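Re: weekly structure request thread

Next one in the queue (487 aa):
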Amino acid sequence: MPLKNVSGKTCAFVAKHMGLRHRYVFTKNNRLRLRYVASMTAVCAALLPTAIAFGPVSSFAHRLEITTAARAHNQMDASIDIASLAPQAGVDALASDVPQFEVPLSPSDRIVTLGDGDALGKVMQKEGVGGGDVHEIIAAMKKHFDPRNLKAGQDVHMHFEPAEGEQGYQLTDMKIELNPLKTITVSHDGQGYKSDVQEKEIKEVVQAQKAVIQNSLYGSAAKAGIPKSIVSSAIKIYSHNVDFQRDVKAGDTLEVMYQTHETEDGYVAKTGNILFAQLTVGGRKIPLYRYESTDGAVDYYGPDGQSTKKTLMKTPVDGARVSSGFGMRRHPVLGYSKMHKGIDFAAPTGTPIYAAGDGVIEKAGRFSSYGNYVRIRHRGDMDTAYGHMSKIASGVKPGSRVRQGQLIGYVGTTGRSTGPHLHYEVLVNNKQVNPRGINLPVGQALAGRDLKKFKSYVSEVNNQFASRLSGTVKVAQRSEQKSDDIN
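Done, posted below.
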């Protein structure tokens, strides 16, 4: 009699006793199908009684496939209608009339990393997104961001859902991290695609670090976790009193407490002001405090309320070494002894150069053997000059005012020069003098109500720095201990 409504358990029983082997295959529509394949021996053994009872079988050169629904947990519970498998149908019926059951589509998540020259539209099409949807998605994104500005290495997160009433998938959500702060998302609301940009919240955090100087200040500070921008700011703060090339030695220390602007997950978006710094040079401690006086002026003061700012900075360039001092020397280009009327600071091309003091630009452009040259008048009888620049900063031109520490150009090797360096001069009454031999007036000192408030502020800052530095050291020690345990 015909066999109908065979259950999944019956299929499993048949598979077991007929020696069927199973395998998973994908259909053209990417649907998963579980297929049983019988060996020829098993088919012959199973169908021999049928052949005897109903006559010879025309051919056993067939592969028997019994297909059943396969769910995610690989269990079979679907009913199979195999009425056509009646014994009188013979082997041909078994081979040709078994219906096939397919697994419903499941949601899919994919991450694609953009390569060199990859366009977002083409990437989506490769993942199966239709041309119409691609156009709509790009248009939605352009309200916030131009997809052409995406760069190689950025990840595109795509989420697909089974398409309603159709075979295949539809892109319903897409996410791209534009930078550590911003992420753009595109979603399908049932009618069309819409885009939005989420920006992480930034909060101000106060950090405290200490670096023991070894080979270089920047390298030692980096090992201690102090950002390069903070080191540059510290150099400017101390540049009125300290020559970082001659005064600072191995074993000296730099301690800083500074502001950072961070996301909740610890990404530092930018650094802020140095609130406190202490440079120890040859055992001498030089603490400085950032303080805003009652008139709104902001400056750095010593513990006694005296501003450290002087008329001129001692070092107008970051991270440079003195390659030639003021005085007689054998000229490296001319080949004979000649008076060197300035100080040379060797540094890589492009290193920033700063105005040594407040003043007005007198010259800015090509000048004789100096190459690109800037000269600043600071007071009636004092100028500074800067030579061999690779480039003069934008806005620096005769007649413009500059502030102490303002960027005026970049180290180069223009003019009569054998390598990239800054030639720096100080001129008094239009005559070059040794920058290290002149006495410069210091800035203002706090007094009265400002001095009283400042003294209280110093005590608060000292306590805050000690507390935060202690916490930083403990965290570092715990991290080192974990590393030791792992190793």
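The chain has four domains: 8-96, 108-199, 203-301, 321-437. Residues 321-437 form a domain with the Glucose Permease (Domain IIA) fold (CATH 2.70.70.10).
Next request, please.
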